[in-house]
Design brief:
2 copies of one chain form a homodimer.
Chain A: E1 11-15, H1 17-26, E2 31-36, H2 44-51, E3 56-58, H3 60-66, E4 74-79, E5 91-95, H4 100-112, E6 116-120, H5 129-134, E7 144-147, H6 150-157, E8 161-171, E9 183-187, E10 204-205, H7 217-233
Parallel strand pairs in A: 2-3, 5-6, 5-9, 6-7, 8-9, 8-10
Antiparallel strand pairs in A: 1-4, 2-4
Chain lengths: 234, 234
Amino acid sequence: MVKKYKKDDATSYALGATLTVELIKRRPESVRAVYVSPRSDIAAVPEAARAHGIPVIESEKAINVLSPKGNCFAIGEFEKFTSPLSAERDHIVLVNPSDSGNLGTIMRAAAAFDAELAVIRPCADPFDPKTVRASMGAAFCINFECFDSFEQYISRFGDRAIVPFMLNGRPFESAEFDEGKRYSLVFGNEATGLPESYAAYDAVRIAQSDKVDSLNLSVAAAIALHRLYAAKRR
Amino acid sequence: MVKKYKKDDATSYALGATLTVELIKRRPESVRAVYVSPRSDIAAVPEAARAHGIPVIESEKAINVLSPKGNCFAIGEFEKFTSPLSAERDHIVLVNPSDSGNLGTIMRAAAAFDAELAVIRPCADPFDPKTVRASMGAAFCINFECFDSFEQYISRFGDRAIVPFMLNGRPFESAEFDEGKRYSLVFGNEATGLPESYAAYDAVRIAQSDKVDSLNLSVAAAIALHRLYAAKRR
């Protein structure tokens, strides 16, 4: 029987019919079962599940346990998976992000702008159903990986341009991006940003008025990812 | 005594000490009272309030009614205000946004990138405490206005460049922005986008991979606002 999600569980959940269909489409091998509400007549979830031999369980109770708000009609239960980063791709690196909504929104932006995601612990849980939901399914189609420290990340991916975003960096808008190079765009925690030590790299800053102290993390990350993506396709 | 926020109320609330200090700093004339928790020793809120002759009420109960999650120690109660748009400024226009978190995040981006915000009804409530909180105080420092229809907006602000964002638009990345012109960047609802009728204007599209159907609304709006801001300051 299903139970409320906990960080150390071996499985997690895709909440909602659209997300569950996306899960089945992208990672059928990871799906253990789908739960559908008897109140629902959405055929897409059971059809997709049966096409992959995934058990379909009709259970209002399972849905209520996992999504108490009452506007969810299907849930996909999946085994957590690994999706190692590639040295050939651009990365966005989040150092200690604390908000699962931001983490999921940045997964969606990374998918939109052809990047992979590294997350430095401690961090919001990339498999939390809230993260997965905010990703709109991008969690199932981009590569992402957690690291115990930035040093651990660098030991595997040091051979590329490291670009930390800091309030005292040089203007991001005039930074050049070379199509032949690989980039890692690095962002700090929502409240505290990156530690001063990251200024050892060539840090940049997104232009902004003095009316705000900073940008929302997912907004800043998306602006950076979009500019890199657009520059490389020019 | 305070009660749970409703859309038709004449007042709303800033939840949290930092936000309440921002409210008092930006709009002291709108603040009716501040509520502080007896558990808190944060001096900034009562100090700022007293400097403006605003009543300070110590009340755990008021805090529990308005912010049941228990991590809030101060609340500012304020009268809803009007902040009319200027014809001299760039605008972001949201047609029927439905999510208060997105609306607040876009207020924050508009403040960061020197734009004002128009919202076309039906829409998420710009004074909802959730919107105000997501705005991180930008609700108190940018001008924003609601309109009953896009036509009503255009009847006042038709004399400028109208730029709708649509999936079949031309590339946004090669669109030129003229420092002497005023722009209105127009975005549709989170789920449905803009109706086809907006293609009568010169629509643009943000470049993105085919891995996602669309971008998060606040992410797309921020990418657009940032590029306009950066282009005008070049």
